[in-house]
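Sequence only, no structure available. Ideas?
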Amino acid sequence: MGPKTAAGLLVKYGSLENLLAAGRFAGQADELRLYRSIATMDRKAPLPSLKDQVPTWARAYSLAREWELNRLSERLSRLAAAQERK
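Reply:
I predicted one. Tokens follow.
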């Protein structure tokens, strides 16, 4: 489902809980609640462990630029350049 369909369902039902109470997406209810917790940055959201990684600033810069996040892309560009000099 795309963002427009999701937004339309939330407008129609008023909330995720109302949508689920109406019997919509019963098989995905737990996942949808988890995604909501992650999206709202709930500190109690159960996130998987991630292995330590070195940031790929050049890739992050490219994504930020693609998404037109100009100020962020400028900062990431500087980090990418510094990483290349190492």
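The chain has a mean pLDDT of 91.
Hope that gets you unstuck.
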